[in-house]
Amino acid sequence: MRRALLPLLAFSLGLVGITAAAFIMLRPEAVPVATAAVGGPFTLTDQDGRTVTEKDFAGATHLVFFGFTHCPDVCPTTLQQISDVLAALGPKGKDMKVAFITVDPERDDPASLKTYLSSFDPRITGLTGTPEQVSAVEKSFRAYARKVPDKNGEYVMEHTAIVYVMDAKNRFLGALDISRTPDKTAAELSKRM
């Protein structure tokens, strides 16, 4: 009886070994989590006249918003909503930074950005540069901006009004939904930190 069981046992062990080897060889490789190609290197000037790059925002989750200081409603409203969310984060948001990148570099110099942003949370950094520098950043974020003449002989800027959430390595995580209360938005944002 032992003689009959020995080949059967060897066959069974061999079958288990082949199955295990096939499982190891055929299992799918871990697929990396894809992030959208949004953002990238930039060199701009902040509201204090200092040169700033994307590296100044690395190290913690941060926000990016495109706008301009002559914006009649969307920009100041959004910046106030961002300020409220930062306050709602409390101590958890102490390292949070926000880049407010102008889409109107012709009018938004460092001094005008500094004056404009004085009404909002101090963690919001205003950024400007040459039209070419700003255009390059808009393209890297897939943002839209266009000068539109108004009826007073001046102009306004149509632009993307998304608040980009970027991770500590400057990778795009998604858009921040600021249509909710600051507490709810802060709770959602804290999950990405």
From TrEMBL:
<dbReference type="InterPro" id="IPR013766">
    <property type="entry name" value="Thioredoxin_domain"/>
</dbReference>
<dbReference type="InterPro" id="IPR036249">
    <property type="entry name" value="Thioredoxin-like_sf"/>
</dbReference>
<feature type="domain" description="Thioredoxin">
    <location>
        <begin position="33"/>
        <end position="181"/>
    </location>
</feature>
<comment type="similarity">
    <text>Belongs to the SCO1/2 family.</text>
</comment>
<keyword id="KW-0186">Copper</keyword>
<dbReference type="Pfam" id="PF02630">
    <property type="entry name" value="SCO1-SenC"/>
</dbReference>
<protein>
    <submittedName>
        <fullName>Protein SCO1/2</fullName>
    </submittedName>
</protein>
<dbReference type="InterPro" id="IPR003782">
    <property type="entry name" value="SCO1/SenC"/>
</dbReference>
